[in-house]
Protein 1
Amino acid sequence: MRSCRGWAPRESTTLRTDGRLLTCALLVASAALVAGCRQDMHDTPRYETFEANPNMADGRASRAYPAGTVARGQLRDDEYFFTGKVNGEFAAEFPFAIAAADMARGQERYTAYCTPCHGQLGDGKGMVVQRGLRQAATYHQDRLRDAAPGYLYDVISNGFGAMQGYAEQVPPRDRWLIAAYVRALQLSQNAKVDDVPAADRGKLDAPAASHAAAGEPAPATRAEH
C-alpha cells in the first residue's frame, strides 16, 4: 500500500490557468482605471485658444479685450520712443541721451543679436555669411551712414528684406542702444582726424610715441587704415 506521508493533492491545471487569467484581467483593468484618472487630470475640460464656444453670442471661446483697454506694461503712448518716428518721419535724433554705460549695453546686445550676420565691424561679414548664407548689409555704405537713427531703430524692430524684426526679442530701449552702437561702428570705420576735437588730437600720436620709446613697432593708427 502506498504511503501517504508528504503527499498533498495536486492543484487542478484548469484552476491554476483560470486564476492567472483572472489576475491578469484585474491588473489590466486597474492600469486602465489609473491611466484614465491621470489623463483626466492632464486634459482638464476647458476651451482652447480660438476654440468655438456655443455659450457665447459670437460663438468664440476667446474674449476680445474691452474697448480702450491696454495690458499692463503695454501702453505705448510715446510715438518717438516706441516707433522711431516723429509725425510719421524717422527721428533724426535719439530719444534720450546716450551715456557710456548705454553704449556698453548697446555693444553687448549688438554682439548677441547682430554679429552673426553683420559681423563685429558691421561690414556684413558675420559668421553665418562666411558659412554660405546670404550676404548681410554693411553699415559702411552711404545710404546707411546717412540714415536717421529712427530708421535704424525701425529696421531692428520690424526687419528689412531677408532680415527678421527683433521686436519680440529686444525691448525698445535696447533697440535704441543697438542703433547707437551701430552709429559708433560707422564712425569708427569712417573717421577722420578732423572729427577729433582739436584738444584731443595729440592723443592720436601717443601710442606711436610710447612704442617708439620702448623700441617696439608702432601699431597702426586710424589715419593709416
Protein 2
Amino acid sequence: MAKKPTGESDEIRLRKKLAARTKEADGPSGDPTLRSLRKRLKRVQRKRRALSLRKKHAAGTKAETKS
C-alpha cells in the first residue's frame, strides 16, 4: 500500500528541518548533514521551478490572448 501524502510539501518539511538543525549548530561549520539538507532543499526548489516553467511554456500563447 502507498503512503498517504502529508499536508506539507517536501520543500516546507526540508526548510523546517534545516532551520532546526541550523539552530542546533554553533555556526557555519562543515557539518555534512547540514550541507546535504541544503543540497536537498535546493534540488526540490529547482524541480518546482522547472515544473512551473514547463507548464508555462506548455500553455503557449493561447492563454495570453484569451485574457
Protein 3
Amino acid sequence: MIRPSFFVMVAAMMVLSGCAGYRVGNVSGRNLQGVRSVYVPMVKNASLQPDVQPLVTNAIISRFNDDGTLTVSQNNNADSELDVTVTSVTETQVSNSVNDINITTQYQINMQATATYVNRRLGRKIFENVQVSGITNFFTQANIQEGIRQAIPLAAQDLANHTVKLVTEGW
C-alpha cells in the first residue's frame, strides 16, 4: 500500500527539479554584479561591406531594449561597455535552379564580428574578441545586389541577437 505522503514527496521533487536552472532577478554572476546599464558605441567596420555600422549598432541597441535585462545608455557613465567590430560580410550559394545548375536561386549572407564586453564597475573585461555571427538566406532576384541590400539588415539583426545573448546569458 502506497501512502499519500509518498505522492506528495514525488510531486515536490518534480516541481523543484523543474526549476533547477531558473533564476529570479537580473543578470547574475560575479562578473556582472552591479551592472544595470550598457554603453554601445558605434560598431566598427573592418569588412568590405559599406555602411553596416549604423545597421548593426541600431540592431544591438534595439535588441537590448527588447531584452530588458540592461538599460542602454549612450554616454560614458554606463556600468558596462560593449564594443563590436564587423570583420566580414560574405555571401555564399545555397541552392541552384532545378532546371539549370548554373543559375543560383538562393544565397546565404554571413556577417562575422568580434565583441568585447567590459564591466566598468569592476574595471575588467568579461570577454574579449569573441566571435559572433549573423546569418540569413535570400532568394535571387533580378538584381543580386538588391537581394544583398535587403538581406544585410536581417543578418545584422541575427548578429545583434547572438551578441546580446552573449552579454546577458553568458553563452
